[in-house]
Specification:
By secondary structure, this protein is of the alpha+beta class. The protein is 52% helix and 12% strand. Strands 1-12-10-11 form a 4-stranded mixed β-sheet, with no helix packed on it. A two-stranded antiparallel sheet has the order 2-7. It is a multi-pass membrane protein. The chain crosses the membrane at residues 209-231, 274-298, 310-330, 351-371, 383-407, 433-459, 465-488, 500-524, 536-558.
Length: 564
């Protein structure tokens, strides 16, 4: 994630309130220092502090609502002037305990290994646990003459008034900046297992419920269409058709129209069948990873107290689900080939390398840009080697194992025979791909509200932990994708277009196009502080990687549904 934790100069003593503490005085700001500091303020740089694994939280009030932020800005620009936050007012919430077994008091695995199991026997001094960490940044003018002989952590000679609503310390070239702080400890009823609730408290619940209600309306509308198609049209016609003998069928065929005319071509192999099987297999792996990760996160198994568990869980589940990718890809390959085993090893091997290869290519290019920018977000070379070993030593063998089971499993039998000569597709009034691209708007409509919160979490540093809502949205998205595919495929067959395989994949896979357009919109209107071509390239590169992943996951839902 690019996070590098360093020790700060701020010093606290447990349950000891301190005020007007002098921290340091900078040298006189040079021209380069002044330009860099004002540039960082324009770019909305944040300072993130951590105390006992808890990020510093800042409360602001806007239009009657209390907003929570992690960290604080280094400064602010008002009109043409720049002001720096050089005084910090810390508040540490602590919970007193008398229990000698600290691990039992905490009741969680969060940093348990850092505590002894037995307290100080015979001591009357109570123990305290940090259960909250708040910061209020202030801009205060200090007298430079008063701090000339002060040493770090000594008391500032005059009172300091911290008013968060006003700023008074301007940044000037050739002038030093004095930094001070104060800290107060406050006993709280919050217990150790509940100390993350302030960070994970759900905001905008009504918006999330509106997103789900919006998705349910789309699903109900599509379900009605599917019900009409299958109950009133397809089922009735199939029943009548199966009751006729061959001579009667031949007579009826002359009067048939629509999808009934392509019954002998509907299961004809698509163009590039191996590529389709590979993409569907990789899509199953990605979709399975998403479901497992979000479900475990929603159940609370991936605590934010343990940094990196979410990404680690994603990688682990992705590798294990290589078995599913190989199985689905090979079984679909055999189904398209009418049970032929030939070439299954090649399909399984390509399924193991296709999507990871694309991901590795994109991330390597972006990593070179990060290396060139000397960013801490660059993946170290040693980690690159580890990821490659995980790929080729775990993911690839598991995918081949899944392919082996897929080759042994019985393939799906088609209910009708395929004609030797393909039927000519009549000329269409409108390009069929136009309908496919338009179909992506329905899946996008189910997730675009939740997408805003996810983008804000990734790029704006906001906490996102409403995985329960996200899991519901994911389930609704899968249902919408399946319904869109059914309706769209039926529409194509009604105009005697039997080439449905790829169109069913991209019917809901085209939602990726709209997500990418939304990403560009987010870059232009919400990430105005993003500076330089390198930052924009990184953003667009990561967005491209994200939409490709979504295309694989949503496209495979449709193809699997239609194949069955």
């Amino acid at each position: 994630m690019g996070d590098r934790i360093e020790n700060s100069p701020y010093r606290f003593k447990m349950h000891t309130n301190e005020t007007e503490i002098f921290l340091c005085q900078t040298n006189k700001l040079s021209s380069d220092d002044f330009k860099l500091l004002t540039k960082r303020i324009d770019e909305m740089y944040q300072v993130n502090l951590i105390l006992d694994n808890l990020p510093a939280i800042r409360y602001t009030r806007k239009e009657g609502f209390m907003l929570r932020w992690t960290g604080y800005p280094i400064g602010v620009k008002i009109k043409d002037g720049y002001y720096v936050f050089n005084h910090l007012k810390f508040k540490v919430l602590v919970h007193k305990y008398e229990e000698t077994n600290v691990a039992r008091v905490m009741g969680t695995g969060d940093a348990v290994e850092g505590f002894p199991s037995v307290g100080n026997k015979g001591s009357d001094v109570p123990g305290y646990m940090v259960v909250g960490f708040e910061v209020v940044p202030c801009s205060v003018v200090h007298n430079g003459d008063l701090v000339k002989n002060l040493k770090m952590y000594e008391k500032y000679p005059s009172p300091i008034k911290c008013e968060p609503t006003t700023v008074s310390m301007p940044i000037k070239e050739g002038e030093p900046i004095v930094f001070t702080y104060e800290v107060t400890f406050e006993e709280s009823d919050i217990k150790w297992p509940s100390r993350w609730d302030a960070y994970l408290k759900m905001e905008g619940a009504k918006v999330h419920w509106f997103s789900i209600l919006n998705s349910l309306m789309v699903i109900t509308f599509l379900a009605g269409i599917v019900l009409v198609i299958f109950l009133r049209t397809v089922r009735r016609d199939l029943t009548r058709y199966e009751e006729l003998d061959k001579e009667a069928q031949a007579m009826v065929n002359e009067e048939l129209s629509g999808w009934k005319l392509v019954v002998g071509d509907v299961f004809r192999a698509p163009s590039n069948p191996a590529l389709l099987c590979i993409m569907v297999g990789d899509g199953v792996q990605i979709l399975g990873m998403a479901i497992v990760t979000i479900l475990f996160a929603a159940l609370g198994f991936m605590s934010p107290a343990s940094r990196g568990t979410l990404i680690t869980g994603m990688l682990f589940s992705y590798m294990i689900l290589g078995i599913a990718a190989g199985y689905v890809a090979v079984r679909l390959w055999r189904t398209i080939g009418f049970g032929d085993h030939k070439g299954w090893v090649s399909v399984a091997w390509k399924a193991a390398c296709f999507f990871p290869g694309i991901a590795f290519f994109i991330l390597t290019i972006l990593n070179f840009l990060l290396w060139g920018s000397r960013s801490t977000g660059a993946i170290p070379f040693s980690l690159f080697v580890i990821l490659l070993l995980l790929w080729f030593c775990i993911s690839v063998p598991l995918t081949l194992v899944g392919g082996y089971f897929g080759a042994k499993a019985p393939h799906i039998e088609y209910p009708v025979r395929t004609n030797q000569i393909p039927r000519e597709i009549p000329a269409q009034k409108y390009p069929s791909w136009l309908l496919v691209l338009g179909a992506g708007t329905l899946p996008f409509g189910t997730l675009f509200i939740e997408l805003f919160f996810i983008m804000s979490s990734i790029w704006m540093g906001r906490v996102y932990y409403v995985f329960g809502f996200l899991f519901i949205v994911l389930v609704l998205l899968v249902v919408v994708c399946a319904e869109v595919s059914l309706v769209l495929t039926y529409m194509h067959l009604c105009v005697e277009d039997w080439k449905w395989w790829w169109k069913s994949f991209f019917a809901s896979g085209s939602v990726a196009i709209y997500i990418f357009l939304y990403s560009i919109n987010y870059l232009i209107f919400d990430l105005k502080s993003l500076s330089g071509p390198v930052s924009a390239t990184l953003y667009l590169g990561y967005s491209l990687f994200m939409v490709l992943t979504i295309m694989f996951a949503t496209g495979t839902v449709c193809t699997q549904k239609m194949a069955h």
